[in-house]
Amino acid sequence: MNTWNWQVDTAHSAVDFSVRHLMISKVKGCFNEFTATIEADPTDLTTASISLEIQTASVDTRNADRDAHLCGADFFDCQQHPTLTFVATEICQIDNDQYSVTGDCTICGVTCKETFTTHYAGSSTDPWGNEKIAFTAEGCINRSDYGLKYNAALETGGVLISDLVTIAIEIQASRTV
Q1: DSSP-derived secondary structure letter, 153
Q2: How many CB atoms lie within 10 A of CB 79?
Q3: Which one in 35, 77, 96, 131 has a CA-CA gap of 20 to 30 Å to 69?
Q4: Which of 120, 55, 33, 48 shows the shortest CA–CA distance to 91?
């Protein structure tokens, strides 16, 4: 087994999310600042060590007022909780390039187990001789599990913001020496 350290290439990676709004459409956003620690053997990813840290104040929904609200006490409370984290605790292979990654997700000081379906997209060497690997991960979390309960009832029934948040992560990383 050859386990190597991998450094996330943030220029070619993304942490995106979407949440249903007014029960009829989705608001999409991303976090612009994040880091990850990855120790992995691409031939046996079930032995990988993975942790992700996201700067909550880097939330970006392309709407400054909404972003300010998300940074406030109703949601991330970025002053009190500047990061959200995910640390993998179990990685199971589903098929050739697909894995189930379960771990401890901490948002606003609350930790819950979450599972993401992860696809290993493969490896390549860039024009400068750097070895790269790439992953995609998708899953849903329930924001109220983390105390993010801000909402409003709608006259027509339902609520302003869904509890379910879809998360999509794209990671490209370079092998470090």
Answers
A1: B
A2: 11
A3: 35
A4: 48
